[in-house]
Amino acid sequence: MSKRLFYTKLGWDDMDRDQLSRSIKLFSLMNKELVIPSNHIYAKHAKDFFYKHPELLELKLIKPAMDPKYSSFQDYFSQGGRAEKAGTSLVEYGRYLDAMDVEKVSYSDTEPAGIFTELAIEQFSNEQSVLSKAAGLNMPDAHKFLDRVEEVRQGTHNVIYYNDFMALAEAHFKAEQVHIIRKFADLNRIMAGASSVRCNNLIPQENLIDWCLVKPQTPKDFILSDEQIFWEVFFESMIKLTDGIFNLTDLEKVTPKTLDKFSFEEIDAYRKECIIQNDFINKYNSVIENIDGVPKLGDAKIVLLDFDQLINLKASIRSEFSRTLDQEVSLYTELELLESLMKVTYQIFGGAIETVSSVVNFFSIPFNKQKDWNVFLKNQELRIERAYKFASKRISNKAVLIEYMEELMKKSKEVWYK
Predict the structure, then answer these.
(1) CB of 31 within 8 A of CB of 3?
(2) Contact at 8 Å (CB) between 305 and 313?
(3) Is 104 exposed, middle or buried (0-12, 13-18, 19+ CB in 10 A)?
(4) What angle do CA 402, 236, 297 make, to 5 degrees?
(5) Do 307 and 215 contact (CB within 8 A), yes or no?
(6) What is the DSSP string of 275-334?
(7) Could you report the average pLDDT of every consecutive run of 10 residues in the chain (418 residues)?
(8) Is residue 8 within 8 Å of 189, Cβ to Cβ?
(9) d(CA 16, CA 227)
(10) What's the burial of 148, exposed, middle or buried (CB within 10 Å: 0-12/13-18/19+)?
(11) In sequence order, which ranges of 126-263 are alpha helices (DSSP H)?
């Protein structure tokens, strides 16, 4: 399955519009689906963004998660005190969303509570857990707290909800401990939501430092968010290992700010036009998922890693991308050699070298030149398709990551000068 990412930044207060826009565009290129939590649909950033950019929902670049028991956005907003939480009326906004063709991702809104409960009990039960160490919990106090949690669960279908959990924590622990426990609870709520809609991104691990659950001596050395992995691990490795394949000047044009030059419609069009889009998503994701400690789609259990494990995970991700790109560089070089040999053979038969794909098409028809040869060569789409299939048959693998970046660079050059 192509990657589905649980996108939470529309619920953050410290993101400006440009950051959000770049983030959505990048993640749309890296993932098949972006899913936002149902309680983020009415967050201030989300509301402002969807009013300004309805195409995000209409093009299905973003899909809200929602329990199917709600018949509409208006129905959802009218329940659970959501207007009070938003601090404003949501009636007009609900009508606005319901008037669009919005694709929702269904899930049961009781499932996240079960996942939240399981991880909370696990973290409070183990004196060596990430939370116990971060909050300085002692086991007698933690077990008394869990006894109260158990009492509450008896009346709530055997789960503990976020608000009840925090009310118990505030009554039981010191203020400095509650501060960290709240950070854990906020993170746990996001992780539970991601798991319930089967998202397979790094959210369970990516912001543990920001959530005050691990304490690095040198925070700047720590890179583990999805965006930073793309730019500071994958893309840096691409620059170092593809010397001679790509023009450095062209590579340098692919930056976060380059994304500002793409509209959301252009991002959507590129996703649909690029024939290796899904191959790239799957391979990029598989490189990360092959590493021990990274949460995988369908994992039944959420695990929080400690700081040493996180640092090792960062090093492993960098190493795995380097290894994969090394393989792709060798493969890409083999393809170039094959193309050169094809050109020589083509010349022997008197063919004019226009493109490698035209060479492939030469071998795909009888060797006596046909009258419609020139017309045939003009069929660019067919030429590219046959070239791609020709190379794939002779070399069992594909340099997907490199080929995708090559296509992205071409698009970046187009928008750079528009």
Answers:
(1) yes
(2) yes
(3) middle
(4) 70
(5) yes
(6) TTHHHHHHHHHHHHHTSTTS--TT-SS-----HHHHHHHHHHHHHHHHHHHHHHHHHHHH
(7) 74 80 92 90 92 96 93 93 87 96 88 90 92 91 96 92 95 93 86 78 46 49 68 86 77 85 94 89 86 62 69 82 89 63 44 46 45 49 52 61 88 75
(8) no
(9) 16
(10) middle
(11) 130-135, 139-153, 162-172, 175-196, 203-206, 226-228, 236-241, 248-252
Element containing residue 77 per DSSP (H, E)? helix 73-77
Q: What does the block give as tokens for 324?
A: 């994969």
Please tell me the distance from the alpha carbon of residue 249 to that of residue 241, in angstroms, as a whole number. 15
Tokens coding 82? 């959501």
Which residue type sits at 127?
E
Three-class SS of residue 4?
A: strand
C-alpha dihedral over 211, 216, 219, 221, to 10 degrees? -130
Torsion angles phi and psi, residue 36, rounded to 5: -110, 145
Cα 140 to Cα 127, 129, 395: the distances in Å are 10, 15, 62
pLDDT for res 41? 93
